């Protein structure tokens, strides 16, 4: 069977759509129903669509517009705020500089990594841009806090367990642009190589160009296309370590379209939710009662730096 015939098109068969409003304002049974579905999604596939996330469509559209304007700047202008090192993990990342799959050529994308420090200290950004990003950041934190509450309840932990370990907001907001292809890619080259995310959870906002694919447990790649008025959430490596693989961090990639979409730009926005830098990520007691811990303890900061060093 060819790779393309293996690629499923009915992504909702594997990736559930969960209404977050039922968890926010529902009664006890409705909240528990959401918690049960979240547990199942994170345990079986590591991805889910969130309906009613609580972020206004207008704010999302505004940030996509700012993203397009940024990537339309000259190479010289973008290079003035280039990504420099793993410790700060902020700034512009040029096309092919990053290799999410180290065995393949550089990814056919460019990105802008932002954190709270870079927003307040970088004079290259306009006040309008910074205000939009900060509003978006706050909205994403509200979503991640709600999702982390559901995670804690699903794992029979105090409801604020994960929130207390993320309150310093050591997150990264990433604007992404996948340019149209002007020439054939190098052998094995894709828009974003096969990888898993590094932190706790990721919020992903994407346009309708498509290309995101995730790998099921049996090795089949399935499409994770945009569904209107939803965002994608996936669990990352540190959540997988914390839960001793009760929650899985699933491999995913962005493939090159095989039709006319290859001549169009693709844009997405990722909010990488990361624990406080000094958080010791160690197997949760309830996740190693019937099996030994798979991983040793590691600080969230050390893990992130080690992964970034391998990526760049």
UniProtKB/TrEMBL annotation:
Top-rank lineage group of the source organism: Bacteria
Listed InterPro entries: DIOX_N, IPNS-like_FE2OG_OXY, IPNS-like_sf, Iron_ascorbate_oxido_reductase, Oxoglu/Fe-dep_dioxygenase_dom
Record's keyword terms, sorted: Iron, Metal-binding, Oxidoreductase
A GO molecular function held by the record: oxidoreductase activity
The protein's annotated pathway: Antibiotic biosynthesis
Sequence ranges assigned to domain Fe2OG dioxygenase in this UniProt record: 169-275
Pfam families, alphabetized: 2OG-FeII_Oxy, DIOX_N
Keyword Transferase attached: no
Presence of keyword RNA-binding: no
PANTHER family in the record: 2-OXOGLUTARATE (2OG) AND FE(II)-DEPENDENT OXYGENASE SUPERFAMILY PROTEIN-RELATED
Family: Belongs to the iron/ascorbate-dependent oxidoreductase family.
Name under which the protein is recorded: Isopenicillin N synthase family oxygenase
Origin species: Scytonema millei VB511283
